[in-house]
Design a protein that fits this description.
The protein has about 100 residues and is mostly helical. It has 4 helices and no strands.
Length: about 100
């Protein structure tokens, strides 16, 4: 596993944990007086994803952020294309996060 993949897995873990806490009511969306850095983190990640090409966003969301069928990509990509694009998507995303 390369460094970008490790970073992506860590971000995805945090993202999913915070989203779960919000769904269970353990975190609330911030109002004008309260700041919740976890919720802001999720919103930041969602905004970054919107800056990526749609194909990259789909890969990041389906492979890392959402619980999906592991073979979701088969209806969109050939195997070699998927792995190449996945690597490109992770690199682009991590580059955005680490700027």
């Amino acid at each position: 596993m390369n460094n970008n993949e490790e970073i992506m897995l860590y971000i995805a873990k945090m993202y999913k944990e915070i989203k779960q806490e919000v769904a269970e009511g353990r975190r609330k969306k911030p109002n004008n007086y309260v700041i919740d850095s976890g919720v802001e983190f999720v919103e930041y990640i969602d905004r970054l994803l919107e800056l990526l090409p749609p194909e990259y966003e789909k890969i990041i969301r389906n492979d890392y952020l959402n619980e999906r069928n592991k073979k979701w990509w088969q209806e969109y990509f050939k195997k070699s294309t998927y792995y190449r694009r996945k690597s490109e998507a992770v690199k682009a995303f991590v580059d955005c996060v680490t700027l």
